[in-house]
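Help!! Second protein's tokens look totally different from the first
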Amino acid sequence: MKASAPASSANLGPGFDCLALAVELRCSVSVAPGDRWTVSPAGDDGFIVNAAKELHKEPLAISIDSEIPVGRGLGSSAAVIAALATAIGRLRNGEDDLEGVFEFTAAAEGHPDNAAAAVFGGLVLSGGGSPHRLAIHDSIRPIIAVPDETLPTREARAALPDSVSIGTATRTGSRLLRLAEGLRTGDTGLLETVGPDELHEPYRIALRPIIGELMAAARLAGAPFVAMSGAGPSVIALAGEDDVSAIRTAFEGVPATRVLTPRIASQGVR
């Protein structure tokens, strides 16, 4: 039995731990009964097998084929868990339980944002209730810069302060509303007013300065909105079609970086 789930760019600046966008880079997982637990290709087998054992008692042969860069802030772990849980559900029951897959993936991840995008697709708001799909204008295109270096999520989270000021929280709320409305309407002028995040990005940029280099390059090229993708070090720009080429060229000008221009994934697991 087989299933796939998309990559996702979480946080998007002010949407820390509650907002994510699914993009069309996919992780496919196939499962079949086996005489022992196996994962192909070999890698972090313990993580995959432990997750599978929570869903299925008998041994499985698990095969993974992923387009998603690992350790770059593109939701690779959420995608593989969502696809795995969906494939096992299809093997056991012959049907999908998206809410159940989401809850399992979010628990495995420790936060719901990437899990929601991987399972439901599109632009998704999570936390404080069931995930909610937000509208995103057809004109919006993601351009993603993926550095060669990695930034483990644990390291990125450890860099964050335990609390922030009321002023930071207030400005972050305003930025999040501007971002959501700009993406809904395709108003790039409004997206430009979102500005740089101050809740989490400055602390993570200090860990990997290339993040700041990429963000500055995109802004100079005219990107209306730029943010870290998840915990980084990848950077995502959201722009209209006319700006894609210039932003891509700007990203390519930063050494040790590759650029991806996937479409937004309107469907999550499939």
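Here's the second one for comparison:
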Amino acid sequence: MFDLRKLRQFIAVAEELHFGKAAIRLHMSQPPLSRSIHQIEKDLQVELFVRHPHGVELTNEGEVFLNEARNILLTVERAYERTLQAKRGEIGRLVIGYHGSTVFDLLPRLIARFKQKFPQAQIDMHNMNKNEQLLNLRNHSIHIGIIRHVNDEPGITTHIITKEPIYVAVSNRHSLATAKSIAMKSLATEPLIVFPQANRPSFADQTISECRKSGFIPNVVQETEDAVSALVLVSAGLGISLVPHSACNIKIPDVTFIPLNNPKFRVELCCIHLTERRAPVLEAFLQIIKNTPQ
């Protein structure tokens, strides 16, 4: 059968309708070009050209073969280009695991920048807790996880994306709702709702630890699954909650967010991925993370 070189030779003759002109275009002599076309016709057992003293014209079979030959070359060129794009991380599917309030601020901005730079790339997102993210990373089910608290894990690389300030979420009916900022010690007697309750250590443990550093044991009245659940209880007047800045984007009725006057209390937002798995689409997303202002 014929190769791509012969297809290009056939297309040149079909477009020039002259062996001599086609040979000049291909930077080759005419005899080997004629032999190549004859070989294609022999392989196909058809005549592709009607020969005349001053040129050629395509037969019906030649017209069909010309269209198909052009399509084949376009497909090969597209395959070549898309393979290079995949190598650069410009196309492919990026699978992200996330949890909690991480999805309410920085993560959408990271995805938007990634899609702006690589519009052909696809993104799948899955809500999963810390342990589920680690399991799915090791199973190669996700490329990257976005999480807050993670211990050192063998084979897992962790990058700190940002450190978020903390806000106090209170009901609009609470006496602190009109405060400009709130000191940690003023929360000593407040009923406190912490999250998440699973996959410890977590932001809940960090919150309790910061309260103890400020000289009091917090009055924890409830532990919830995530920030949304905590804010629902805050709205109902069951207590207050300390939340990362990203959680302020969660729209729950009758909840006010007030900056905590404690600049040392910040919560890390991290990304995790397999140290050995460096898929191009992952590398491209990590570069977006590195270059995104926090």
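Reply: Different proteins will give different token patterns, so don't panic. Residues 165 and 245 are 6 Å apart (CA to CA).
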